[in-house]
Each structure stands twice: as C-alpha cells, then as structure tokens.
Amino acid sequence: MVAPEAKSRGVYAISVAAELVGMGQQNLRLYERKGLLEPGRTDGGTRRYSESDVMTLRRIAELLDQGLNLSGIRLVLALETENAALRTQLSRRPAPGAAPSPPADTPPAAAST
Predict the structure, then answer these.
(1) I need a surface site. Which of 47, 75, 87, 103 has the fewest CB within 10 A?
(2) What's the pLDDT tens digit per position in 23-56?
(3) What confidence tens digit (pLDDT) does each residue in 54-66 have?
(4) What are the beta bridge partners of residue 47?
(5) Residue of 51, 48, 61, 59 lying closest to 1 (CA atoms)
C-alpha cells in the first residue's frame, strides 16, 4: 500500500504522466489551465505529477468518455472532493447516544476545589 504522503509527492514528468494515462502532453497542460488539477513544480518550474494527479487524470478520461465537457468535469471533481470530505467528517462523529468529546481547541475544565 502506498503511503498518503507518497501519493501526493510529484514524481512523474509530464511525458511520463501523459503516457501512463494515454493522453497527450498538451491535454495535461490544458487541464491544468482549466483548473482540473495542479501538479507540483520543481524549483525550476518543471511540472511533476503525483500518483494522485495520475488518478485524477484517469478520472478526467472516464468523464470525457461519458460525454462531459471540461466545465462539467470541473464540477464533478469538486463535488467528489466535497463528498469525500463530508464522508470523513461523518466517520469522525461519535455514535448516537455517546458522550460528545470537547473540541480539540477547548482547554480542559479546571478542577473544582
């Protein structure tokens, strides 16, 4: 299993990422301009695509095959990201009837004397 931080580290040059997903390099540049993904950059400005970016590119290809345009794809990707965040929030909620835990930024209550 790949560690989460490894999935977000840019390791692929644009030519390799394009080959991995079966797209042209110009398409990857277009998707970046349209805000569909944001690859990392080296100090010299070279794009570096992560495993997460490659997964996003594969999802873009699926949505294009289904007939969506780039504006529709941007909305779908945003909704999928929001949905994942909401699922994470729900999974962290205490079970019904369980005592609520104090927020992390709340100092513990002072002991009464």
Answers:
(1) 103
(2) 999 999 999 999 999 999 999 999 999 999 999 9
(3) 999 999 999 999 9
(4) 41
(5) 51
For the chain, what is the total number of helices (H) and then of strands (E)?
5, 2
CA 84 to mean position of chain CA atoms: 9
- CA 111 to the chain's CA centroid: 44
DSSP string, 67-112: T--HHHHHHHHHHHHHHHHHHHHHHHSPPTTSPPPPPTTSPPPPPP
Tell me how far apart the alpha carbons of residues 80 and 10 are, in angstroms, rounded to a whole number: 22
Predicted TM-score (pTM) of this structure: 0.74
The span from the CA of 38 to the CA of 61, in Å, is: 16
Instruction: Give dist(CA 51, CA 76) in Å, integer.
Output: 20
- Token pair 């030519």 is found at 15
What pLDDT does 10 receive? Answer: 79
Task: Give, as one character, the DSSP assignment of residue 113.
Answer: -
